[in-house]
């Protein structure tokens, strides 16, 4: 199943057509088994044509947005760190969440890119065992953990969340795809292009802590709520670790693609 939002309403998406789902996004995700059963027999005669540019974020108003630092060994190495033995969890504040095709106002400083595969939580739960963790995931979507590095690394110890939560710094979409739609839900390729140049490329099978492990570990502490997002980490290739460092500039376009999901596109001003 592929789902997203259109004018703030949840829709199923198939062959460039959108079919509205009854009820609020978070309420629908809370009833995930009912939603999947409804989708299996939905009447698509009422669907309307849709483009990625018309779609909003798959979850416009998540209550919790988790993110994972240094979840790929090459990225940990380029940042000068040893790969962590436990997930390094921080937050992006929900007000930064945006849709798949957006224009982002750069805040100054050192704005950078981080392509991420984002897990969308369905019914959720507390203390979810790893062997049942994929059952808690309604879908995977494309995300960018846009980051203003000067603010992120200011102070000792550094703090991440505010510098990663400027308006538009959490674009997601164009749809969320349920795990059963992937040939291998644990091995999905993705890449990020800046003005046509590939700057990041990876596969989710390279994660230090895979999606199901993250769901189990996070839910062991925080109950996961319907519609919560988990930004699962970025591979090597971010701008601030290049020589010389390279940051986002007005007029540039960033495209982030994930196999079997699609792409999101951000332009900067």
TrEMBL record:
Q: Which Pfam families match?
A: FAA_hydrolase (PF01557)
InterPro entries recorded for this chain?
A: FAH, Fumarylacetoacetase-like_C, Fumarylacetoacetase_C_sf
Keyword set for this entry? Hydrolase, Metal-binding
GO terms (molecular function) for this protein are:
hydrolase activity
Superkingdom: Bacteria
Start and end of every Fumarylacetoacetase-like C-terminal domain? 65-268
* Record-stated family: Belongs to the FAH family.
Its protein name is Fumarylacetoacetate hydrolase family protein
Organismal lineage: Bacteria, Bacillati, Actinomycetota, Actinomycetes, Micromonosporales
